[in-house]
Specification:
It is a single chain. With about 180 residues, the protein is of the alpha+beta class. The chain has a single domain (about 5-170), classed as Gcn5-related N-acetyltransferase (GNAT) (Aminopeptidase). Helix 1 crosses helix 2 (about 50-55). The chain has a seven-stranded mixed β-sheet with strand order 1-2-3-4-5-7-6, sandwiched between helices. About 30% of the residues are buried. About 25% of the residues lie in helices and about 30% in strands.
C-alpha cells in the first residue's frame, strides 16, 4: 500500500509558474521515474513562460498538487473543442513518486474536464516507448484510439519516436474505476 500524503489539488496561478516548470523538468529528467525522457529527448520539457501561457489560455487549466505549501505534482488540461479535453504534462516530483499522487491528480483532472469544461472525453498522448505508462492509463479507463502523432524530431535523441493517443469517455459511458 502506498503512503498517500495529505494534498490540496487546485488550479495554478501565474505566481506558481516557476515551481510548476521545475517539477515538470525534474520529473521528466529523472532516470528512475515512470516517464524518464532523459535518454530520449533533448532540452527541458517546459519553462515558466510556457506555463504562464497555459494558465492564461481560454478553456485551459494547470492543476497542482500541493503538500505543505510545496507543489509536488502538476498537469495541464485544455479543451480545444466542447467534446474533448487534452490532458498533458502530468508530472510528479521524483521525491514524491509512488505515493498515488499521479492517480489523484489524474482523477481531479478528469472531474474538471467533465464538470468545469463540460467535455465528453479526455484524451492524452504517451510516448510509444512508455508501454508501462500506457498500461497504467488503460487500467484507469483510457483506450488506445489507434491514432499516433509525430514527436517533434528536433528534440528527439532517438529516431522514430511518436505518441500513442488514448481517450477516455466521460459521463455515464465513462464510468470506469480510476486505479
Amino acid at each position: 500500500m502506498t503512503d498517500e500524503p495529505l494534498l490540496e489539488i487546485r488550479s495554478a496561478s501565474e505566481t506558481d509558474a516557476a515551481s510548476v516548470a521545475a517539477v515538470v523538468v525534474r520529473a521528466y529528467a529523472n532516470e528512475q521515474g515512470w516517464v524518464s525522457d532523459a535518454e530520449l529527448v533533448t532540452g527541458e520539457r517546459t519553462s515558466p513562460d510556457q506555463v504562464r501561457a497555459m494558465i492564461r489560455a481560454p478553456r485551459s487549466v494547470v492543476l497542482v498538487a500541493v503538500h505543505d505549501a510545496t507543489i509536488v505534482a502538476t498537469c495541464h488540461l485544455r479543451a480545444s473543442d466542447r467534446a474533448t479535453a487534452h490532458l498533458g504534462m502530468l508530472a510528479v516530483d521524483p521525491a514524491w513518486q509512488s505515493r498515488g499522487i499521479s492517480r489523484r491528480l489524474r482523477t481531479a483532472a478528469i472531474a474538471y474536464a467533465e464538470e468545469a469544461l463540460a467535455c465528453e472525453s479526455v484524451e492524452l498522448e504517451v510516448l510509444s516507448v512508455h508501454e508501462g505508462l500506457r498500461r497504467v492509463y488503460e487500467r484507469s479507463g483510457f483506450i488506445a484510439t489507434g491514432e499516433t502523432r509525430p514527436f517533434p524530431a528536433h528534440v528527439a535523441r532517438v529516431a522514430g519516436l511518436h505518441f500513442v493517443v488514448l481517450r477516455r469517455s466521460l459521463g455515464a459511458s465513462g464510468q470506469n474505476p480510476d486505479v
